[in-house]
Each structure stands twice: as structure tokens, then as C-alpha cells.
Amino acid sequence: MIHLIKLKYQPIGQSGFNLGAYQNRSSIPLTVAPSAYRSAAADASQLLYTPTNQYGVFPGVSTTPATYRPAADPRGIYSGGTTDEFFAGSPYVGGISGFNPGVIPIGSNPMPPIIASPPYIPPVNVINGPSQNMMSTANSGKTFSRFTMDDVIQQQTELVTGGVWSSNVASLTTHFSSSAQTTTQRTYYVDVHNTIPGDSDSLVQFSIAYGHALGSGSNSQGQLSDSPSKAIYSQFKQLLLNTTETRFTTQGSGSTDSIYAITFKRNRMKERLDPGNFEVPISAVTSRPVNATGSVVISTTITSTIIDDSSINTSPVVGAMGRVYNLVSGSISTGVFTAATPVYFGKAYPDYGVLIIDGNVLDQKLAFKTNLSSSSEANNHFALFRSISGSGTITNAVTSDKFGFLARNSEKITSAHYFVRVRNNEFNFTNNPSYVTGSQGDIKESSFKKDPVTYITTVGLYNDNFELLAVAKVSKPIQKTFSRESLIRVKLDF
């Protein structure tokens, strides 16, 4: 729990006068002239202090107890001890609670501070009248300031979205497969990179796989139950469907044995894909070999863009892996095409980062010619890879841009806001070595003695044990004087 703040450069409790004598102190002792004390015969309303030998001796003033008011006088007593005791262990060190707010520091005699108990009566015959800015010296000596309930706002949440692809871009128009995958791996899936594999900035963005419930479309090598396509179908069925479901069901063809799966890299999608903010371009297949790792020719005139139906489906099904939307023909900019009778392509699982495209629909709408042979390795997933990557070379007539795979992620961020309020009479001195000069630590700029100027560069957040928990940097130094106040908001994201 954060309870305290500290500004840097932090103040050190120095007044504009006599800086050298107390440059390492946390507080400044108060001194009054001897004429400020009255005998017992004096007017009681003028009597404020009760010095005794216990608290030190004032030069030139008798300390006979009978001469002055008794210690029980409610109008003020000494508190502390000797000067050394005050600075070493007094409870007033490091704050302003040890000061009489109406007594102005003057002179340089190291006497203990004075606390006045109400009713407060100001001292008399104070010499060397102070400047107006000196009135705030006590508060300027602050090093830490405690937050109040009004300064902290907890549990603020907001939804943050960003581009899925590397460098947080939202559109991917170049797609590359990698020869680093083994031959066996390529029979199961293809990793898609953003640049040529081997480049320093080449990273896997998403993967494509093909699955078939009966193992068709891949070579079982004599064992049909072990075919890559069946393994892929079973894997996604276990991940995405309820235990009572044995097949993927889409609005396009009902129960389907043939699926293409697009999976986003986990570190790309953060918490989830952002529903309504992804668009997959898929071009029709003109021709393909039996094994789709070969030359797949795509159409340059027939390209469909697929989105989810979250814009018209406000109550999605919530399954084993979160929300489930339909994949339909449409675009991010215009929404679902023919919303009354959408063209369905499959299912979207944005909370898991998976898109399941019905293979039967791709065959019907975009002539994919999915190879369902069980005696040869078809590598159907490479046909979808060629279709998506080839779309990146085709210009969209509506936007005049290349068809890109568009996608954004989303995450919910919880924040705490800490409002650091810097009053005009606080934090006006600094322990920056450049502020002083000479062996006595005199203020370098004479004008700063009565009108100091500092610059806030850092805010530190501390716990009750004065342990630093967080550091906030301001964008540029904030000037601080007796005539300036600042409000700094520190935001912590979790």
C-alpha cells in the first residue's frame, strides 16, 4: 500500500538565511530576542515562555523559576531538549509539527523550537522582521507528504486495444513461410512470418492448420488414426467445444468434418482478439496441385473479406472457451455484407485467439478444391496460406489499398491514480549540490534566499516504512516557487 510521496529534488528544511549552519538539518530551530521574555510581574497576556535550566539557557536572561511563569502556564512551554537532542531524536524532525506557526525564524543561535498551546499569543519584541516568504519556511522543509483518501482513486479500469502484428501494426500485407520448420511439422501447420525468415525483425505472427475429423487430407502412412489432419481436428475440438460436442457446427454447412484453423500467437493477442476489429482477406483458388505446398494459383478478381458478426450479434454464445461469434462476409469499415442474410464462413473464438473456417464453405464459395484423399499428403493448409498471402498483392477497389490481414487485440487494464498536490509553501528548497556554493553551503543565487526556485523532476511513491515502491518522471521539469502550485497525477497500471 502506498501512503507517502516524496518529490525530488527533495527539500531539506533550509531557510533562506543561515543556510550554511543548518544545511544538513531537517528543521530549523527558532530564536527570539531576550527582550521577548517577561517577568512574573509583567502583563500576563504578554507572557508566553517558561524557560528553565532543563531546556537550556538564554544568553543574558535569568532562569530563576520564580522570575517567570510556572511550567503549568497553558500559554506555551518548551518542548524538546538541547539542540542536539532536538535534531537527533525529537519527534518534530522532518516535518512542521514542531513549529509555532506564528514565530518566525530569526538570528542564528541554535536554540530549541517552541510550541505554543492554545490560546496562542504571539511573542513580543521580535527582532529582524522577516520577509513574507519566510512565513512558509516550515512547510518548505517537507521531505514526505502523506496521501489522504481524496488523493487516491483505486480500481479504475479501461479497455485498451492495439495492433496485433509486430510493432503494434494492425494490417499485415506480407506473409512468409519458414524453411526452419521440419517436414513433419509442415504436415500439421505452417507458421506465417511478417518478413523474410532470417531477417532480424522476422517473427511468427500466426499459424494455419487443416483438420479433418476422419483424417482425410493427409497421409496416414498405414495408420489412419494417426494422420496429421485428424490430430489437428481432435486438438481443436478438445480446446474449443463442449465435451458433448463431437463436430464443429457452422451456419454455412451445419456439422462439418473439414476445418481450416487460424491461430494467433499468444503474445500478439494479449488478453483476446478485439471482436469487430479483425478482417481476413481470402482469394479464390484458380488451381492447385495435389500437395498444396506446390504452386497454388489464386484469383486476382475474386477476394472475400471475413469478419465476425459482433456488430449484429449482441448476445454471442458463451462456450467452453469464452464467447463464440460467427465468421461472415463483411469488412471492418462497412460491417456485415447483407446483414439480413449473411454469408457464413465459420466460427470465431476471440477469447482464445482462434478462427475456425468451414472447409466445405471455402470449397463452395471460393473453389478451394480441398484435397480429401487419405493416401497422400495434401497439406491443404498451404492453400489457405497462399490465398491470404496472395491477397496482399491485390488492390482493394474500395480503399485503394492492398488487401491486408487486419487484426487488433484488446486487454482490460486496472489503474490507480495518485494526485500529488504541491502547495505554494511546500518543496521550495533542494539538496541538489548545484544549488549551493562554498564550504558553508551558502545559496549560490542570492535572490533564492528570499525567493527560492526549484524544479520538480521526479515523484517517488513510498510505503509507511519509507521504502520506495514506484518512481514517476515528469515529461519536463516543473518550476516550483512560493507563488506556484502544482498538481501531478501519477497513474499506476496493473
The residue-averaged pLDDT reads: 75
| Rg, nearest Å | 38 Å
Total number of beta strands: 24
CA-based shape: elongated
**What is the SS-derived class?**
mainly beta
End-to-end gap: 14 Å
Low-confidence stretches: 9-135
- Number of helical stretches of at least 4 residues: 7
* Largest sheet descriptor: 14 strands, antiparallel
**What's the domain count?**
3
Helix content: 10-25%
Strand content: 25-35%
Description:
The protein is elongated, with a radius of gyration of 38 Å. Strands 5, 6, 7, 8, 11, 12, 13, 14, 15, 16, 17, 18, 19 and 24 form a 14-stranded antiparallel sheet that branches. The model is unreliable at 9-135 (pLDDT under 50). It has 494 residues and is mostly beta strands. The chain has three domains: 1-16 and 144-162 and 412-494, no CATH class; 27-140, no CATH class; 174-403, no CATH class. The longest helix has 13 residues, at 228-240. Helix content is 10%, strand content 32%. It has seven helices and 24 strands. 36% of the residues are buried. It has helices spanning 83-89, 137-140, 183-186, 228-240, 266-269, 359-366, 381-391; strands spanning 4-8, 77-78, 114-115, 144-146, 152-163, 171-172, 189-193, 204-212, 248-250, 254-256, 258-264, 272-287, 297-308, 317-319, 322-331, 335-336, 344-349, 354-358, 405-422, 436-437, 442-443, 454-462, 468-480, 486-493.
Task: Offer a concise description of the structure.
By secondary structure, this protein is mainly beta.
